[in-house]
Amino acid sequence: MNTGVNLAGAEGNAPEPVGYRTEMYRAPVPATLKGARVVTTDEAIALWKDKETVFVDVLPHDPKPANLPAGTIWRDKTREDIPGSIWLANTGYGILNTETEAYFRKGLESRLGREKNRRVLFYCMENCWMSWNAAKRAVEWGYRSVFWYPLGTDGWIAAEQATQKNEPY
Protein backbone atom coordinates (compact mmCIF):
# COMPACT_ATOMS: atom_id res chain seq x y z
CA MET A 1 0.00 0.00 0.00
CA ASN A 2 1.38 3.40 -0.91
CA THR A 3 0.48 5.75 1.93
CA GLY A 4 1.47 8.91 0.12
CA VAL A 5 3.78 9.79 3.01
CA ASN A 6 7.55 9.63 2.69
CA LEU A 7 9.11 6.70 4.49
CA ALA A 8 12.04 7.30 6.80
CA GLY A 9 15.05 7.28 4.57
CA ALA A 10 13.24 8.62 1.54
CA GLU A 11 14.75 12.08 1.70
CA GLY A 12 16.76 14.28 4.04
CA ASN A 13 17.70 11.40 6.29
CA ALA A 14 19.60 12.21 9.44
CA PRO A 15 22.43 9.95 10.57
CA GLU A 16 21.72 7.80 13.61
CA PRO A 17 23.31 9.54 16.59
CA VAL A 18 25.09 7.76 19.41
CA GLY A 19 23.06 9.50 22.11
CA TYR A 20 19.62 11.04 22.29
CA ARG A 21 18.36 13.93 20.20
CA THR A 22 17.98 16.92 22.55
CA GLU A 23 16.82 19.73 20.26
CA MET A 24 14.90 20.36 17.05
CA TYR A 25 12.64 17.35 17.61
CA ARG A 26 10.63 17.99 14.43
CA ALA A 27 13.28 17.29 11.82
CA PRO A 28 14.28 14.47 9.46
CA VAL A 29 14.93 11.27 11.40
CA PRO A 30 17.32 8.37 10.76
CA ALA A 31 16.24 5.28 8.85
CA THR A 32 17.65 3.08 11.61
CA LEU A 33 17.60 2.60 15.36
CA LYS A 34 20.16 0.19 16.77
CA GLY A 35 18.47 -2.54 18.79
CA ALA A 36 14.99 -1.84 17.39
CA ARG A 37 13.15 -2.71 14.22
CA VAL A 38 11.96 0.18 12.07
CA VAL A 39 8.53 -0.51 10.57
CA THR A 40 6.55 0.83 7.64
CA THR A 41 2.87 1.72 7.79
CA ASP A 42 1.88 -1.67 6.39
CA GLU A 43 3.97 -3.41 9.05
CA ALA A 44 2.51 -1.21 11.80
CA ILE A 45 -1.00 -2.08 10.62
CA ALA A 46 -0.18 -5.79 10.69
CA LEU A 47 1.26 -5.49 14.21
CA TRP A 48 -1.83 -3.59 15.34
CA LYS A 49 -4.19 -6.17 13.83
CA ASP A 50 -2.51 -9.09 15.59
CA LYS A 51 -3.25 -7.44 18.98
CA GLU A 52 0.03 -8.73 20.46
CA THR A 53 1.99 -5.47 20.24
CA VAL A 54 1.66 -2.61 22.72
CA PHE A 55 1.47 0.73 20.88
CA VAL A 56 2.98 3.72 22.69
CA ASP A 57 2.46 7.32 21.59
CA VAL A 58 5.01 9.76 22.99
CA LEU A 59 3.72 13.03 21.52
CA PRO A 60 4.31 15.91 23.96
CA HIS A 61 1.33 17.36 25.82
CA ASP A 62 1.09 20.66 27.64
CA PRO A 63 -0.97 20.30 30.83
CA LYS A 64 -3.16 23.14 32.03
CA PRO A 65 -0.93 25.52 34.00
CA ALA A 66 -1.80 25.62 37.70
CA ASN A 67 -1.31 29.38 37.94
CA LEU A 68 -3.70 30.58 35.24
CA PRO A 69 -5.58 33.72 36.26
CA ALA A 70 -9.22 33.17 37.25
CA GLY A 71 -11.51 33.22 34.23
CA THR A 72 -8.81 32.18 31.77
CA ILE A 73 -10.14 29.77 29.19
CA TRP A 74 -7.93 26.72 28.65
CA ARG A 75 -8.57 24.48 25.68
CA ASP A 76 -6.85 21.15 26.10
CA LYS A 77 -5.58 19.74 22.81
CA THR A 78 -7.15 16.47 21.78
CA ARG A 79 -5.08 13.67 20.29
CA GLU A 80 -6.29 11.32 17.59
CA ASP A 81 -4.31 8.18 18.25
CA ILE A 82 -3.86 4.69 16.90
CA PRO A 83 -6.67 2.78 18.66
CA GLY A 84 -5.65 0.99 21.84
CA SER A 85 -2.46 2.99 22.29
CA ILE A 86 -1.17 4.27 25.59
CA TRP A 87 -0.16 7.92 25.39
CA LEU A 88 2.97 8.43 27.45
CA ALA A 89 3.23 12.15 26.83
CA ASN A 90 6.57 13.94 27.04
CA THR A 91 8.63 10.74 27.34
CA GLY A 92 10.50 11.25 24.08
CA TYR A 93 12.66 14.16 25.12
CA GLY A 94 16.39 13.56 24.99
CA ILE A 95 16.78 14.26 28.69
CA LEU A 96 14.12 13.10 31.14
CA ASN A 97 13.85 14.34 34.70
CA THR A 98 13.38 11.75 37.45
CA GLU A 99 9.61 12.25 37.57
CA THR A 100 9.13 11.83 33.80
CA GLU A 101 11.39 8.78 33.70
CA ALA A 102 9.38 7.17 36.53
CA TYR A 103 6.13 7.99 34.68
CA PHE A 104 7.57 6.43 31.50
CA ARG A 105 8.64 3.23 33.29
CA LYS A 106 5.30 2.98 35.13
CA GLY A 107 3.36 3.48 31.89
CA LEU A 108 5.33 0.77 30.10
CA GLU A 109 4.92 -1.59 33.03
CA SER A 110 1.15 -0.92 33.09
CA ARG A 111 0.87 -2.45 29.62
CA LEU A 112 3.86 -4.81 29.45
CA GLY A 113 4.15 -5.94 33.04
CA ARG A 114 7.73 -6.87 33.80
CA GLU A 115 7.99 -8.88 30.58
CA LYS A 116 10.76 -7.31 28.52
CA ASN A 117 10.26 -9.72 25.61
CA ARG A 118 6.78 -8.41 24.75
CA ARG A 119 6.49 -6.43 21.55
CA VAL A 120 6.25 -2.67 21.98
CA LEU A 121 5.94 -0.10 19.20
CA PHE A 122 6.77 3.59 19.67
CA TYR A 123 5.43 6.39 17.49
CA CYS A 124 4.65 10.09 17.40
CA MET A 125 4.35 11.94 14.09
CA GLU A 126 6.37 11.96 10.88
CA ASN A 127 9.82 13.52 11.32
CA CYS A 128 9.53 13.52 15.11
CA TRP A 129 12.54 12.49 17.16
CA MET A 130 10.41 11.90 20.25
CA SER A 131 9.50 8.37 19.19
CA TRP A 132 13.10 7.62 18.18
CA ASN A 133 14.35 8.75 21.61
CA ALA A 134 11.66 6.78 23.46
CA ALA A 135 12.32 3.59 21.49
CA LYS A 136 16.07 3.99 22.05
CA ARG A 137 15.49 4.42 25.78
CA ALA A 138 13.34 1.26 25.89
CA VAL A 139 16.15 -0.69 24.18
CA GLU A 140 18.62 0.66 26.73
CA TRP A 141 16.28 -0.39 29.55
CA GLY A 142 16.45 -3.95 28.29
CA TYR A 143 13.29 -4.30 26.22
CA ARG A 144 14.10 -6.84 23.52
CA SER A 145 11.25 -6.54 21.03
CA VAL A 146 11.13 -2.82 20.29
CA PHE A 147 9.58 -1.44 17.11
CA TRP A 148 9.82 2.15 15.92
CA TYR A 149 7.22 3.57 13.55
CA PRO A 150 8.73 6.83 12.24
CA LEU A 151 5.66 7.93 10.27
CA GLY A 152 3.47 7.78 13.36
CA THR A 153 -0.07 9.06 13.19
CA ASP A 154 0.68 10.94 9.96
CA GLY A 155 1.40 7.67 8.15
CA TRP A 156 -1.47 5.91 9.91
CA ILE A 157 -4.01 8.56 8.87
CA ALA A 158 -2.60 8.75 5.32
CA ALA A 159 -3.28 5.00 5.05
CA GLU A 160 -6.90 5.72 6.02
CA GLN A 161 -6.69 3.78 9.27
CA ALA A 162 -9.05 4.43 12.16
CA THR A 163 -8.03 6.67 15.04
CA GLN A 164 -9.50 7.34 18.46
CA LYS A 165 -9.36 10.24 20.87
CA ASN A 166 -6.83 9.64 23.63
CA GLU A 167 -5.62 11.31 26.78
CA PRO A 168 -2.22 11.04 28.44
CA TYR A 169 -1.70 8.12 30.83
TrEMBL record:
Among InterPro entries, the record links this protein to: PQQ_CXXCW, Rhodanese-like_dom, Rhodanese-like_dom_sf
Question: Which residue intervals define the domain Rhodanese in the entry?
Answer: 108-165
Give the superkingdom in one word: Bacteria
SUPFAM superfamilies per the record?
Answer: Rhodanese/Cell cycle control phosphatase (SSF52821)
Gene3D superfamilies, per the entry: Rhodanese-like domain (3.40.250.10)
NCBIfam families per record: PQQ_CXXCW (TIGR03865)
Query: What name is this protein filed under?
Result: Rhodanese
User: What is the protein's species of origin?
Assistant: Phyllobacterium myrsinacearum
The lineage is: Bacteria, Pseudomonadati, Pseudomonadota, Alphaproteobacteria, Hyphomicrobiales
